[in-house]
Design brief:
The complex is a heterodimer of chains A (184) and B (286). Chain A is α+β, with helices and mostly antiparallel strands and 184 residues long. Chain A contains five helices and six strands, in the order H-H-H-H-E-E-E-E-E-E-H. Helices cover 28% and strands 26% of the residues of chain A. The longest helix of chain B has 16 residues. The chains are: A alpha+beta (184), B mainly beta (286). Strand 1 of chain A pairs antiparallel with strand 20 of chain B, so a sheet runs across the interface.
């Protein structure tokens, strides 16, 4: 519980009315972003610790990742891995029938649910690729999911055809590389 | 060259020959209405020779009551159809584009807009405040409804205030209200509802019309304490690119509440995704 204090503090800070409305200086807004990012770091650690315990310590590394730049069609996890699993959590108190969209970097995908049943997925080109970052995914993979209330489901993606070139220069987000002037 | 009809199993959209949305029909209920969607912008006060109250972080003060169209003429339209979703890409300009999505089995239309960086003139830049506007022929009679922080809906009347003597000095911004989750207009039969994925300013300046402010870039401090113009930038040092979603549906007035009450929760509580490598111990993962 204590490991989430940084996350809690960041979220509490972001409820400030000047954070919500954007009536703050640019540097302050960057600071909010940095603090939220640090909170997410802790959240991922807690998630992976839980996973490690649930699996009797068979997973002891940080392998479960969020993709924080999905709104920019960027996902480091799906760009690195040709095959991966996605745990889809439903935070709603109602069952959800939805279509999730994943940034995707390969030419083809076979998607199955946790029983091994093939799912009817759809691969689409990412629109506006000329307007977004160089490491944005060229495709988006849409997958239908049925998730119980406050529950989760797991889907498996097996990809083929390398599309994304790892040798392309990457733009790095400044809020990831920003180092504080001091540790205060 | 001609109007284009695009349909899913639930929704039919009609686009005119310039690429603009023209009409919507719910194929399940048979409800249909003319519907035009467009992007426009207000110029904000502040640029020389203006010396009064500038539009900025706290203040919305357009120079004129009518927003300006972004681009006359045709827009680029591209359609991609698949088994799960139909994607309709519209490109208005190098800095405004949108994907309209029709999901299989869903009776709403998703508008995923992307705006920015908003252009900045070299000399004497002009503040720009971008809106998306949905226009129908619903006889809303000067009233519209916005949510009260996601809870009950508040009835709004154009050019009127219940708590003070309304003065028509700011005909646009005085009619703007916070839209935290949804806004709608209705008459005795039809209702047009738009759900937002974030808080936006919204209004209905003409009957049957909904407008929502989705992005803005101001170049002058408004004097309310920030001491900076609202000229937010990202890591590329250019103006911010903002992207978000609207879910729109048409219904009869009696059924609308039951639809938007559950839909708002769907919008708020989006699925959360985490990614795992598939390793040889995938049996353990399962």
């Amino acid at each position: 519980r204590n490991n989430l204090n940084v996350f809690r503090s960041a979220l509490a800070l972001l409820q400030h009315h000047d954070a919500v409305t954007g009536t703050a200086k640019q540097l302050v807004t960057f600071d909010y972003t940095k603090r939220l990012s640090m909170g997410w770091d802790d959240g991922e650690i807690v998630l992976n610790n839980a996973l490690s315990k649930l699996s009797d310590n068979k997973f002891n590394a940080t392998i479960c990742k969020l993709c924080r730049l999905m709104n920019e069609s960027i996902c480091e996890s799906t760009s690195r891995m040709s095959s991966f699993a996605v745990i889809v959590f439903n935070p709603d108190s109602h069952p959800k029938s939805s279509v999730i969209r994943i940034p995707y970097y390969r030419l083809a995908a076979e998607v199955t649910d946790f029983t091994g049943k093939l799912l009817d997925s759809q691969l689409s080109k990412t629109p506006f690729t000329s307007l977004i970052k160089i490491d944005a995914s060229p495709y988006q993979l849409s997958v239908p999911v049925q998730i119980p209330a406050l529950g989760y489901t797991t889907i498996y993606v097996n990809g083929s055809g390398e599309v994304y070139s790892k040798n392309r220069g990457k733009q790095r987000n400044s809020w990831k590389t920003l180092k504080p002037e001091n540790n205060e | 060259m001609k109007s284009t009809k695009i349909s899913s199993d639930c929704i039919e959209l009609l686009f005119d020959r310039h690429g603009y949305l023209k009409a919507i029909k719910n194929l399940k209920t048979g409800i249909q209405t003319p519907l035009r969607q467009e992007f426009l912008y207000y110029e904000g006060t502040g640029s020389w020779p203006f010396t009064g109250q500038a539009s900025g972080a706290y203040i919305f003060r357009p120079t004129e009551a009518n927003p300006k169209p972004l681009k006359p003429g045709s827009i680029f339209l591209q359609v991609e159809k698949g088994p799960l979703v139909i994607n309709i890409l519209q490109v208005y300009s190098p800095w405004i584009s949108q994907v309209i999505r029709l999901y299989k089995g869903k009776e709403y239309v998703e508008f995923e807009w992307m705006v920015g960086p908003i252009p900045k003139e070299q000399n004497n830049p002009i503040t720009k405040e971008i809106i998306t506007r949905y226009s129908t022929n619903i006889a809303s009679n000067g009233t519209f409804y916005t949510d009260s922080n996601g809870r009950q809906m508040m009835k709004r009347r154009r050019d009127y205030s219940a708590s003070y003597i309304y003065m028509d000095t700011e005909p646009v911004s005085a009619n703007y209200y916070p839209v935290n989750s949804r806004i709608f207009v209705k008459d005795s039969e039809l209702q047009l509802t738009v759900l937002t994925d974030r808080s936006e300013g919204g209004t209905s300046l003409n009957d049957g019309q909904i407008e929502l402010m989705i992005h803005r870039r101001a170049f002058y401090d408004d004097g309310y304490g920030v001491e900076e113009p609202l000229d937010e930038y990202g890591d590329n040092k250019q103006g911010l690119i903002a992207s978000g979603k609207h879910w729109l549906f048409v219904s009869n007035t009696k059924q609308a509440a039951s639809i938007h009450r559950s839909l708002a929760f769907e919008m708020l509580y989006q699925p959360i995704l985490t990614f795992f490598p598939i390793i040889k111990q995938d049996e353990i993962l399962k």
